[in-house]
Design a protein that fits this description.
Blueprint: H1 2-17, H2 24-34, H3 44-64, H4 69-92, H5 94-104
Helix pairs in contact: 2-3, 3-4, 3-5, 4-5
């Protein structure tokens, strides 16, 4: 039983470390900087900025953990979601697209 409780403790510590890079304050800062306000979580620019932040974090994680295939798959899905939002912005408003790409330093 002692080994089980130790594993549970390790597991809880690991879960507590997940998501710590993306606190509520960080999200509010991203949305206020790139959206219309800190509560504007639905704007394409805010979502693209949030996805970019998460992509950067996952990329750094994968540099140290090359065999973490679940994270790699999550990263690919996240990049696809960001690409879809960028494609939407191109069709909807090219000026907003150019502004967000320039702000975030994205290619294309």
């Amino acid at each position: 039983m002692h080994a089980d409780s130790r594993m549970l403790s390790i597991h809880k510590n690991h879960l507590n470390n997940i998501g710590m890079y993306l606190t509520k304050e960080t999200k509010e800062e991203i949305f206020s900087k790139h959206g219309k306000g800190k509560n504007d979580t639905g704007s394409a620019e805010g979502q693209i900025a949030l996805f970019t932040h998460r992509i950067t974090h996952l990329t750094e994680h994968l540099k140290n953990n090359r065999k973490d295939y679940n994270t790699e798959r999550s990263l690919v899905k996240l990049v696809g979601k960001r690409r879809d939002l960028l494609d939407y912005l191109v069709k909807k408003d090219i000026m907003r697209y150019r502004a967000i790409v320039k702000e975030l330093g994205l290619r294309k």
